[in-house]
Amino acid sequence: MGAPKQKWTSQEETALKAGVLKHGTGKWRTILSDPEFTSILKSRSNVDLKDKWRNISVTAMYGSRKKAKLALKRTPSSHDDDNATALTIVAIANGAQHISPLPPALSCAPPRDFEGLFSSVDKMILEAIANFNRHLGPDGKSILLYVEERHNMQPDMKRLVTSRLKHLVNVGTIVKIKHRYRICRNGAEQS
Amino acid sequence: MGAPKQKWTSQEETALKAGVLKHGTGKWRTILSDPEFTSILKSRSNVDLKDKWRNISVTAMYGSRKKAKLALKRTPSSHDDDNATALTIVAIANGAQHISPLPPALSCAPPRDFEGLFSSVDKMILEAIANFNRHLGPDGKSILLYVEERHNMQPDMKRLVTSRLKHLVNVGTIVKIKHRYRICRNGAEQS
DNA sequence: CGGTAGGGATAGGGTTCT
DNA sequence: TAGAACCCTATCCCTACC
Hints:
globular; coiled coil (chains A, B); DNA-binding; 2 strands; mainly alpha; nucleus (chains A, B); homodimer; two-stranded antiparallel sheet
């Protein structure tokens, strides 16, 4: 009869993002218990946090969970980098059309100077990994969030970051171990 | 292109109502899986059931979804019972204007004998709860449906039932727990 | 038992068709 | 134009698996 559907406030959402930045994804109970966030999120459960984070990240990446599933079906698993550049260009094209103010960290590079744009994004990614305060390194979503928060990245640009992240793994600049990224010291590392 | 707009047959609608009576509202997939209804409703999805039920109940209560929204805006949230009597009288007034044949269960009470009318409706509500064959008790819409089906209540009178339901909760005759109603045995129950 | 991941269901706003 | 049918997706729920 009533409407038991508690919409997330922007304050709660901010707290959740900060929590993920601090503790990483998958640490929902930890985030909830952190005195920095517990009061803001007191009406949420760990499962709520997990669901909301899924919603946030999947929306930013694909637009919706349904589209995400379809996209993942079209790209069953690998092909991680074959079309990365294509994806990137599509992202840039979309971004150029939709983004009103170019994010400051990017505006230093001319919109069509792909090389410059790439290196700018790459630097942000490396910075995100370097500044991550946990031993295992951040996962992809934490990197995206870092770039978004620190460099005012527009949501439309997330595909670009994702693509460059894959590229940096493929060229060996960084390594990906169990869905977490770290800067590669020498050639390659085995898990 | 893809949707020739499949109108609901009265048979389907009957099955849906029976399903809600049996399983309660919000159990669309359960209703769909019930062997008693699955063949009749085989061309409908759980979402279709939900949407149709919204049309049925909201139409009965307010006339249309648009009017429902306006009505709910006027009564933002609580005030659940302050104006219950007022609403009731409005409903009766509307009913007196629009209802052609007074429902049998009500016609025993003179149209303006509010006390008699109330106790008659109250009895129907208690009967609905008593006869509900699930432990948690029916929700508001199931009660409305029960009264409509068993006592030939006209749709225009639903507001009256709703108001009396709220009243019975407020005076402690029945308790409302998680949007479901049950008859109160002693004083109060805690969840 | 407590926690997480993931699939799936529901609620409610929005859209299309008639 | 209103109302019925349908779509979209944030939120919530359930279950398997540690």
